[in-house]
Amino acid sequence: MRMLVTGGAGFIGANFVHYTLEHHHDHQITVVDALTYAGNKANLATAANNKITFVEGDICDAQLIDKLVAATDIVVHFAAESHNDNSLRNPWPFVNTNIVGTYTILEAIRKHNKRLHHISTDEVFGDLELDNPNRFNEATPYNPSSPYSATKAGSDHLVRAWVRSFGVQATISNCSNNYGPYQHIEKLIPRTITNVLSDIKPKLYGEGKNVRDWIHVDDHNNAVHLILQKGKIGETYIIGADNDHTNNKMIIEMIVELMGKSNDWYDHVKDRPGHDMRYAMDSSKIRRELGWQPQYTDNQGMREGLKQTIAWYASHRYWWQPQKQAVEAAYAKQGQ
């Protein structure tokens, strides 16, 4: 199996490459990544050189993408601008990468008649009220609330249109918030962990009532492989681990407690504009049809996943410390 992984030097993509090499030894992997701030070739350093081919390039480069797609069997499309706060500061990179880049990939897929799996997010659905018992499912209408989520919604619609209009062989997955190794320290969990490791109090947006469905990146990538193996062309699959937690009580407080601090050792900062209140995912379809089961689920599984993630950042200071000062300075300008 020849596999092209776009964005394979980013957080989820790099973990997907490592997971694939560990569990699918017959795969030959090519990674294409533009190595923007969120992409880091060091994320793939432990992968044997003879097992992957790395190409530095932009998914909006039609000539490059055409060449790479022509030489592969399947494309797993992770590449995206993905940080909400950055999309509020400058939306254009999100429009370019998430929409134009996905269009470029789809045209190459169509030309060469290849298989595509498109990675998306729960944020395309907007948010739920805190007292709303419903969960997002594959039929939930889209209602994005930020430039990031709007451009991801647009890319999802492009994939569905190319399936229906041109017969492209593609599937889509919308996943809840991932956590684990290699995640950029601007994100909530690694920022909290690296703050504690740096003796800086973690920061909590607003009142901290926002609810997220957290999933360990290995559980996510296991689900993606099941979709590649057994998923039905044209279908969308929700991926969620039923780990619905408020960002303060069950995330920041859990992290600081696991790291030996009192569970109130954090500071409140102003909320970000348009901050979605609650995400909750109904993953019954992928569980029922493909037999997927997450490993790191419920409160105990979340604690175990966080322990492993804390240990990774504690033992990989060289990976994140050079970025820490700049990340915190950027947040400080926003009062966060």
Describe this structure in words.
This protein is α/β, with parallel strands linked by helices and 336 residues long. It has a domain at 2-184 and 214-243 and 278-297: NAD(P)-binding Rossmann-like Domain (Rossmann fold, 3-Layer(aba) Sandwich), CATH 3.40.50.720. The chain is built from 11 helices and 12 strands. The chain has helices at 11-23, 62-70, 84-89, 92-112, 147-166, 188-197, 217-230, 248-258, 284-290, 298-315, 317-333, and strands spanning 2-6, 28-33, 52-56, 74-77, 115-121, 169-175, 177-179, 203-205, 211-216, 236-239, 244-246, 267-269. The strands form 3 sheets. The protein has a 7-stranded parallel beta sheet with strand order 3-2-1-4-5-6-10, with helices on both faces. Strands 7-9-11 form a 3-stranded mixed beta sheet. A two-stranded parallel ribbon has the order 8-12. α4 (92-112) packs parallel to α5 (147-166), α6 (188-197) packs parallel to α8 (248-258) and α6 (188-197) packs across α10 (298-315). The model has no long low-confidence stretch (mean pLDDT 90).
Features:
single chain; 336 residues; alpha/beta; Rossmann fold; 11 helices; 12 strands; 43% helix; globular
Brief account:
With 336 residues, the chain is an alpha/beta fold. Helix content is 43%, strand content 17%.
